[in-house]
C-alpha cells in the first residue's frame, strides 16, 4: 500500500525534474549553454539528427554570447543553420573553427511572452502531478473497497498523498517565480 505513495512520489519528482530541464531552454537576459544544448542539428548530409550538446562544446562568452566549438569541424555550417532557423532569435558568425552566437537584448514584449510560456509549462506539470495524485487516490480507494486496507489506512494514505502534492505545488511555484524573475531581469 505504501508502494502506491512511492510510485506517486517518483512520478511527481520526474515531472518536477522535467520542468527544471524544460525551463532551462527558455531564454533570459543572460546567455546560458542550456539554451542551445537540446537544439536538434541535422548533419552529415541529413543522415543524422543530433542534439547540439552531442556535437559540440558550448560555453558562455560574456553575458550575451555563446561560443560553440564542434568536435567535428565539418558540422560547423550545419550547426550555424540550425541556430539561425531556431526560434531563439540568435545571430551567429563563424570564427575559425568555432561559432559565436550572440543574443539580442529581449524587448519587454518578448519578456512577457516568455513569462506566459513559463506559466504554461508550470501549469502543465501541475496538472500532471494532480493527475498522478488522483490515480494514487483511486488505487487507495480500490484497496479499501477490496478490504485490503482499513479505513484508517485509507485516510492516512490519502492525507499523505495530499500533503506530498501540496509540497510539490509549492516547489513548482518557487521554480516558476525564480524563472520569471530571471526572464524579467534586465
TrEMBL record:
Entry keywords, A to Z = Coiled coil, Protein biosynthesis
Provide a Gene Ontology MF annotation, just one.
Answer: ribosomal large subunit binding
Which GO biological process entries does UniProt record here?
Answer: translation
The answer to whether keyword Coiled coil applies is yes
Q: Which domain of life is it from?
A: Bacteria
Keyword Protein biosynthesis included in the entry's annotation: yes
Please give the coiled-coil regions recorded for this protein.
107-153
Q: Which InterPro entries match?
A: Ribosome_recyc_fac, Ribosome_recyc_fac_dom, RRF_sf
Ribosome recycling factor domain location is 19-184
Question: What family does the Swiss-Prot or TrEMBL record give for this protein?
Answer: Belongs to the RRF family.
Query: What is this protein's record name?
Result: Ribosome recycling factor domain-containing protein
